[in-house]
């Protein structure tokens, strides 16, 4: 591990201690004053620059808070007026569009059936518990669901042999976010849970099944 501290304040304290000790013990360390001069000058410059940085950072934080407060107050004034405009039956969609406020969608676009599959992984560690993690096969590094999906539908078979088809599965739950924690009874301990999953929309449209994943339920 590096002997020089990571944070600026701790680094400065270390340098000040080092400089003071070396300055007081030049002869014992077989050094001359000139050896220490660059460190003393650099320490003084860094001390001044750090102080300026801390002051500027505090000023920036204060300015950001002032800006955020102004935006909050402005928004609080805008929203009631927009609600009044929206409630006026004489306001047209063209006027709404010109003001860049919400134009009511009287013919909402249909939600398409999901075409991708969830990729499921299982985290173990707790007794009588599995933690399921879901990502979409097209975006495996993100937690985002595919367009239109409200969550993932989880089905499983608990036993000693894998399911041979959908008829062997029982519905477990629908989860809108990952991870999902499933708890089991003592009677399920030491059995295997075989999981199938698929994306589902608010209107009940379901996508294709995921690959099967399985894990033993710790008793």
Q: Provide a count of the helices.
A: 3
What string, H for helix and E for strand, traces the elements in order? HHHEEEEEEE
Radius of gyration: 32 Å
User: Total number of β-strand segments?
Assistant: 7
Strand content: 15-25%
Number of domains: 2
Classify the helix fraction into a percent range: 25-40%
* pLDDT averaged residue by residue: 94
Q: How far is it from the N-terminal to the C-terminal residue, by CA?
A: 42 Å
Low-confidence stretches: none
Summarize the biggest pleated sheet. Answer: 4 strands, antiparallel
C-alpha geometry: flat
Neighbour order of strands in the largest sheet: 4-3-6-7
**In terms of structural class, how would the helical and strand content be classed?**
alpha+beta
How are the elements arranged and paired?
Blueprint lengths: L7 H17 L8 H55 L5 H7 L18 E6 L5 E8 L12 E11 L10 E6 L4 E4 L8 E10 L11 E4 L3
Helix pairs in contact: 1-2
Task: Tell me what the structure shows.
The protein has three helices and seven strands, in the order αααβββββββ. Helices cover about 35% and strands about 20% of the residues. The longest helix is centred in the first third of the chain and has 55 residues, at about 35-85. It is flat.
